[in-house]
Amino acid sequence: MNAKFNTYKGYPLVRNGNDIYYGYMSDPYVIFIQILDTTEESGEKVTSKVRVVQMDTNEPNPLKAFVKNTERECGLYEALDIANVWLEKALKN
Asked: Where are the beta strands (DSSP E) in the chain?
């Protein structure tokens, strides 16, 4: 079975509720985005606060896998831009 994923700037996005994983799980790092709060604009729910976490996919202990994180009052696209910058930098090293 070949699953098709949504992508952003060439990396897959997998969402489950308010949790989004960005990147390939086979790479050394992946980004976890958690939607913490939403607001309503024009009848639609819009992301207003997120947590972005860079995770080491080779670390067996989930508590030690968190490399760096931030909480921001921003929309989903800004969170994805942060995630993309972090992922690109981490994978170059």
From this structure: 6-8, 11-16, 19-22, 29-41, 44-56, 66-72
